[in-house]
Amino acid sequence: MLGSLFLLAALVMVESRAESLPNLVILFADNLGYDDVSAFQSASRSHGTRTPNIDRLASEGIMFKNWNSAAALCSASRSALLTGRYPVRTGVYPRVFRPDATYGLLPEETTLAEMLKELGYATKIVGKWHLGAYHNVR
User: Fold this and answer.
1) 130 vs 43, 69, 105, CA distance in Å?
2) pTM (2 d.p.)
3) Other CB atoms closer than 10 Å to residue 46's CB: what's the count?
4) Residue 19 burial (C-beta neighbours within 10 Å; 0-12, 13-18, 19+)
5) Of the listed 12, 130, 131, 132, which one is catalytic?
6) Catalytic residue among 12, 74, 92, 131
7) 47 catalytic per annotation
8) Per-residue pLDDT reduced to its tens digit, 48-84
9) Is 74 considered catalytic here?
10) CA 72 to chain centre
């Protein structure tokens, strides 16, 4: 079911000076089937998976039902989501970075979090980074 699920939850919260901005929550998962989240299951095809907290987010917000990933690999797809660029342009494709990697997403890349901070958002990442590391960067 959700056994091999890894969530990269980029949780974005509004700072006090930007109260008019909407809250954003991005859940990014590896190996997640379309109907592994119960909000996407039809009554006739339900296989018993229950995800009540995600269902509540879906019912109170906007559900996007179509998604295309820039790559089938976790590191490459994450770099595309965070930068808006093809993974090959970020120095990530075609590899998956190991936890002990000494290289990774190029330090000069601008990420979604950095762009949102300029608009007044506070950002947080929870879960699997999987984009390598550069020492003494940011």
Assistant:
1) 36, 16, 9
2) 0.71
3) 11
4) exposed
5) 130
6) 74
7) no
8) 678 899 889 888 888 877 778 888 888 999 999 999 9
9) yes
10) 14
